[in-house]
Every structure is written in structure tokens, then in C-alpha cells.
UniProtKB/TrEMBL annotation:
Role of this protein: Member of the two-component regulatory system NtrB/NtrC, which controls expression of the nitrogen-regulated (ntr) genes in response to nitrogen limitation. Under conditions of nitrogen limitation, NtrB autophosphorylates and transfers the phosphoryl group to NtrC. In the presence of nitrogen, acts as a phosphatase that dephosphorylates and inactivates NtrC.
Protein name per UniProt: Sensory histidine kinase/phosphatase NtrB
GO molecular function: ATP binding; hydrolase activity; phosphorelay sensor kinase activity
Organism per entry: Candidatus Anaerobiospirillum merdipullorum
Listed InterPro entries: HATPase_C_sf, HATPase_dom, His_kinase_dom, HisK_dim/P_dom, HisK_dim/P_sf, PAS, PAS-like_dom_sf, PAS_fold
Amino acid sequence: MQADAKAILESLATAVLLTDHNLKIAYANTAAEQLFSTSRSKLCTLKLTDLLDKEQKNIIESIQLALKPHAQGFNASNVVIIPEPHQTIRTDLYVTHYSGKGRGLIAEFKGLDYQQKMTQELSQRSQHLAARDLIRSLAHEIKNPLGGIRGAAQLLEITYGKYEHLTDYTQVIIEQADRLKALVDRLLGPQRPNPLTRSNIHYVIEKVLSLENMATQVNSNIRFIKDYDPSLPEIELDVDAMQQAILNIISNAVHALTEAHTPHPQITIRTRAQLGSRLINGIKYPSAIIVSIADNGPGIPENIRETLFYPLVTSRPDGTGLGLSIAQNIIERHSGLIECDSERGRTVFNLILPLKKNNLAGKED
């Protein structure tokens, strides 16, 4: 019977925590790990009240009162949970008292952001696909006449090469045609993607950081913090493409910190396994790897947050607006998605890569 009860708790989509009589968390189900982005072993080192925003004194008091014998349970809406510094989750909370061999509380959490996030994810994906198809159609239309323009300029140069003042003009035409072709090629993306090979995501991140550190030696005051989960399994990756995706995001963070002259600038790269079923791009996976890239810069301007992953959208005067669009295309090729959460003083990009059963078993596809 006890095994059946545990199996039921593990299958629930609702996050459930059980505490002892001192409010110390004794059990957390898989949905709780997923909601709080924290392992159950870490949750079980905390008290229930440790998760709450300390400003919610009435909620904390209600929880403590619920421990008393014959106490009634309670529920509360829009409760602010802070499982880790700078991480805020809003939930509905349901608390029930239990007693028997022991005494404690059953706390159920329903994330208010979940449904909103799912709707936003579907909307963002459909808009991105429509924008990508439009951009690629335009890029193909632009690429064909560019070859004709460049060829005509070369013929003019050959025919009238003796007139030096004319070759200056033809050189400008050729150079600008080449520049536009390079831009169009980036819009179209790689024509022949590399095959996927089994690799560790930390190897990819370390390669990117070595490149970024070499490129940013002039801004060596930026501190890179690495918080890796060493237990993550190898997954199927296009290593070169994944390096490009992560590099694009980290480079954007470096530019944002540098241009804003952020005091004590830092970029945190965190990897974790997200246990429990996860719906990604309409497909349900048993679990996922999350790579979080966070900076303490000025945040993304509000006027571009909704269109952030569209091609040619940028807040930088010298930016092309292609970095995040290319990163999203790469992550989508790995059946994953990118989430972004930004406010002044903190911007986080989460790269969510699904773990398939064969990855968990360590088998080849």
C-alpha cells in the first residue's frame, strides 16, 4: 500500500511536499523537483518555510498554526516561492495537516506561470516558424539577383579597367554584394548540418568559454561562474552547432555587460537535469537537460522581448539581430527550446534539451 501511495504521488502533475513536525521537508515528488528546479535531496535539507518569501509573514504563520493538533488546513493564492536566490515562482498553495505514526504537513503547489508559459511557448514557436519561413523566402529572392549584380560589376571592371576612377565604383559594388551574400547565407543557416554525435554538454560549454575568454581579454573584469551537475549523461549533439548557439548567447551577455558598464559584472552558467515528464515543442519527454546562462546586466529592452528570437531584431546599433535566431534554430534541431526571462539586473536564457530514454540508458540511437 505504501509503494502504491508513493507511485501515485510520483505520477501527479501537482508539486507535493511532505514535512515532519518541525516543518523539515521529508519527501518531495518529481513534480516538486520540476517546479522548483531543485533536486529532492536538496529540498529535503530545507524547511517548508525556507522556500517562502520572508515578506509573506501571514502565510508563514498559517503554516506554523497548521501544525497544531486538530488544526484545519488552508489554501492561499499567489504565494511567492524563492527556492534559490534570484529565482521567484508564484503558486497556489494548499496545506493539509496529517497525523498518525508521525505528524506534519502535506503542501501542494500549483505554479501559476505554467499554463501561461505553455501558451507563450506555443505562440512563440508558431510566430518564429512563420518569421523564419518569410525570412528564408526573402533571402532566396535576394540571393539570385546578387549574383547577377556582382557578375555585371566584374564585367564592367574587365571592360573599363583602364579607367581607374571607374574601378573604384565597381569594387564598392562587388564588396557590398559580397557583404549582402554573407548576410543572406547567415539568414538561410547551414545548408548541410553536421551529424549528431554523443557528447557531454560540459565539454561544449568549456570550449565556448575558452573562445569567449580569449575574445574578451580586454574585458577581463567579467566574472564567469560555473555551476555544473557532473551527473548529466552524454546526449546526441551537433557539437559545432551547439557551440555556436551557446557562444551567441554568452557573447550577447558580454556585450550587454560591457556597454552598460555594469559594476561587478558576472555571467553564470548552470546545468541541471529536469526530472519528470516535460512537454517540448508538443512532444512529451521523460526528462531534460537545462543549460542556464544568466547575467547581471541591464536586462533586455521591453519593446523587443516578445520578438527577441526573430531574425534582424536587436537593440545594439552595430548588431545584426541574427545571433538568437540562429541559436534557436540550432536548439530546435536538437528537439529543444530556448526560454528567456529578463528584468533589470538579471537576464536568464534556459536551453532545454530533451533526454530520451536511450540517453538515460547510455545506449546508442
